[in-house]
Amino acid sequence: xxxxxxxxxxxxxxxxxxxxxxxxxxxxxxxxxxxxxVIEGAExxxxxxxxxxxxxxxxxxxxxxxxxxxxxxLQSRLGWCCTKPNLQVAMLRAAxxxxxxxxxxFLPFGLSLAMPEESWEFIWELEPLHGLAEVYLDGKWIGCDxxxxxxxxxxxxxxxxxxxxxxxxxxxxRKSIAGTPSSWxxxxxxxxxxxxxxxxxxxxxxxxxxxxxxxDDIKYRVHLEVYGKAIMKYLxxxxxxxxxxxxxxxxxxx
Length: 254
What we know:
- This protein is α+β, with helices and mostly antiparallel strands.
- It has helices at residues 29-38, 45-59, 70-76, 84-94, 120-123, 184-193, 200-213, 216-253, and strands at 61-62, 78-79, 99-106, 129-137, 140-143, 174-180.
- It has a four-stranded antiparallel sheet. Strands 1-2 form a two-stranded parallel sheet.
- It is globular and about 65 Å long.
């Protein structure tokens, strides 16, 4: 590991959060090199973690891809919630800062901006998972979600991570969370992707590309309109399921 002005974690329980895993390669020369460049000038793990967060958030554009390792994400400069954490966790570990993956289940209408409307009912049948990085700072685990680059989010909805408070982009729809040192989350989401319709990544990436290109005020209006419509349709969808369940329950009683 290259030299940093802080001491790497010595706690035996934290050592697993500094090691390589299948998709996370903190000891790879390319990861070591970019990490040293990104955190240059940082005097504390917190300062380094913020620099790494900003790099992964904005220099790695949000876009749907196949499962990629940390070096592949770095080389392609493209990733999403399943692959960006591979790079972010790898860079944090390369800097001697304990880091791990977090899995969050969430209400599926949070996918509505990227998914075409005709596929909404399909995704509402799923139990979607969101992936992000967690870093160990000042004796606690803190989420630092770098999924969406700044050019994709309206300025009025955009905020930076301060290195102290938990940050997740799906907070309004989050249902549960779990932390893990390994890459099982990547494999879990990869299995879920196998059920997606063919060509859905191409459709999503085209929508993402169009969304990035529009002016900031239009981005904000589109966010509100699409989310509002998706929430209303999701509630209608859930109401239909409830009515069906009630009807079937009544039939079973007869």
